[in-house]
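Researcher: Go.
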Amino acid sequence: MFKDVIGPWPTHERFILTSCDDKYFDRYFPRFYKTFKKHWKLPIHVHVIDPSKTSIGYLNNLDLTYSYCHTDKSVLKFPYSYLTYCQAQRFILLGHNLLENQSVIVADVDSYALREPNEAQKHTMESNMAFTEYNGRLMATFCNFHHSQKAKALESAIEMQRLIEHTDTIGVDQLVIKQLFKALPFNTLKHGEWIRHLDVKTDSDINQHNKCLIYHEKGTRGKHKGEQVKWTDIGL
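Model: Structure:
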């Protein structure tokens, strides 16, 4: 599960990484794929946890790289283990595989691109670790892992694995990122310019979210207020 990953790690110097279980892949990945392809024009790598045969078929017909794994139930001992594992897997995969020359954008699969970044924004992402910061928290929703912090990326992956295997901690990705990277120099992706970490409940919220580079739906009442894309919309 953590180690038995099927599929190669990308060799691109710059790419976008996401991961999810099969349910989220089916629901959100068409939109993620279509919008990031259009606006960011970077290679995409997706890691799918417990994919169906249908999902593997989709992956084989898209312009991307992918990997997948099957859940080892003996490792997931606690009620929230599977949820936290799905949330953290992209960072675990990244930490064990990040190459010396790579700078990798890491994004939630239920986020999506609204517009193309300008040259200054691209530099902000590429030149260092980069996080959105909200209410004193470094957010895991959309961030950049820079090769200069390769050792810290691996340390974070190992700590996330430990928490998933030995505790029932919720949100291990968010917790570990705050613990390990808060003290480091990093570039801040300004709230409201890059992404808005607030619930989407009203038309005003949607309007504010639409001003950002990245849209991420927050709150249970906001999960279906953004752009909707189906598999048929991307030719599958």
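Model: The chain is about 35% helix and 20% strand.
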